[in-house]
Amino acid sequence: MLRWFMKSASGVLGATALLLVCHSSADAQLAREMPAPPRDTTPPLVRGPLLPTESGFALDQMRYDRVLEARVATRFTIKRMFHERGIRYPAAEIFLRIFKRERALELWVRPDGQDRYELLKSYAICALAGELGPKRRQGDNQVPEGFYNIDFFNPISEYHLSLHLDYPNRHDRLAGAEAANLGGDIYIHGGCASAGCMALTDEGIKELYWVAVEARALGQHRIPVHIFPARLDAREIQGLERSFATRPDLLHFWQTLKPAYDFFQTTQRVPAVAVDVSGTYQLNGVAESKPQLTPVHDTRRRVPLGVNAGGGS
């Protein structure tokens, strides 16, 4: 009986082994007949451009509670503004124009890959010190007029958040040479109160500050700011001539601002501005990708603005 069982088991094992061999042969044959799987042609994941919030500058700014709050409070609003205007977000560069008579601050943005600026938003200036006309000395309570840059960001301002202008520029130094002190510390800030500066609401400065942070994070080291007494079109010039008929010095000064105003009105490109040896503003072509780098064709006759501007890192 044992001999019969062992013989039967041996037969079963042999049959199983034969079956496995047959299956293996069939699988191998099937594998040879099946087509090779298609090659994976999916391109490798490529890292996109650096996001503004990933830059060292933005991360450093967001260490401050007010900046972080501004980002959280405004990021969706800002993206919606871009979308509603049909402008690609985020801006590669921004540009500010200020009109004192209208108490308006215009925020212009240049999308990446485009050389013209587009108007994103106009903010009401709720507090503006002084009268029409340039600043010439410390304590005159005047807001400057002319061509400046934002050269540093202040996240712990007494007026919530603030952006500092590089006043005095080369023109101011030459025009105010007789003044013992030209003054300084000119800001665009929040708080709706001003002593020689330009104030927005806290909500307005949050938006403006964060858009400026994004532009700085993407490589715009200086943000141009042009400050005018009014819109220098023909009608406004005539109004200024009537109102300031006894101030030929102011009328002459405003005429030196007009070419840069007209240039941007016509081209939507930021002009390069220089001053001659007398301190008079001169239109000096087009500022290319970085408007703060004012071209200097002849160092004996033309001097770039904002040469000694500091901060901004």
Textual characterization of the structure:
The structure is a single chain. This protein has helices at residues 2-33, 56-61, 65-85, 170-175, 202-217, 234-243, 248-267, and strands at 91-99, 104-111, 118-124, 127-128, 146-157, 160-165, 187-189, 198-199, 223-228, 271-275, 281-286, 303-304. A 9-stranded mixed β-sheet has the order 3-2-1-9-5-6-7-8-4, with helices on both faces. A 3-stranded antiparallel β-sheet has the order 11-10-12, covered by helices on one side. It is an alpha+beta fold and 313 residues long. The protein has a domain at 52-241: L,D-transpeptidase catalytic domain-like (Beta Barrel). The relative contact order is 0.13. Residues 1-9, 15-24, 42-48 and 289-313 have low confidence and may be disordered. The N and C termini lie far apart (97 Å).
**Class from secondary-structure proportions:** alpha+beta
Overall average pLDDT: 81
Taking all Cα atoms into account, the compactness measure Rg is 33 Å
CATH topology of the domain at 52-241: L,D-transpeptidase catalytic domain-like
* C-alpha termini separation: 97 Å
Order of helical and strand elements = HHHEEEEEEHEEHEHHEEE
CATH top-level class of the domain at 52-241: Mainly Beta
The share of residues in helices is 25-40%
Query: Treating each run of at least 4 consecutive H or I residues as one helix, how many helices?
Result: 7
Quaternary form: single chain
